[in-house]
Amino acid sequence: MEPKTQEQLREQAIRLWHKGKKYAEIADIVGVSENTVGKHTQVTPVSTFSSSHTERNVIP
User: Fold this and answer.
1) How confident is the model at residue 1, as a pLDDT?
2) For residues 2 and 8, what is the distance between their CA atoms, to the nearest angstrom?
3) Per-residue pLDDT tens for 3-51?
4) pTM of the entire predicted model
5) Phi-psi region of 8 (alpha: psi -120 to 50; beta: other; left: phi over 0)
6) Read out DSSP for 2-49?
7) 10 Å Cβ neighbour count for 58?
8) According to the model, what pLDDT value does residue 44 have?
9) How far is CA 18 from the centre of its chain?
10) Cα–chain-centroid distance for residue 9?
């Protein structure tokens, strides 16, 4: 998979997570494992995406 495509999927997964979707839902939508979704959401600063959610399990 092209790096640009991977980045787009990662960003989509993060946006879905910020909207409150569960890892399993995101994994199905994006086409990756729940473990991968977890890795993406654990290393992303909240300020990167606009969201009504507060910080959850985010490493600064």
Assistant:
1) 80
2) 10
3) 999 899 999 999 999 999 999 999 999 999 999 898 888 865 555 554 4
4) 0.66
5) alpha
6) -HHHHHHHHHHHHHHHHTT--HHHHHHHHTS-HHHHHHHHHS--GGGS
7) 15
8) 52
9) 7
10) 8
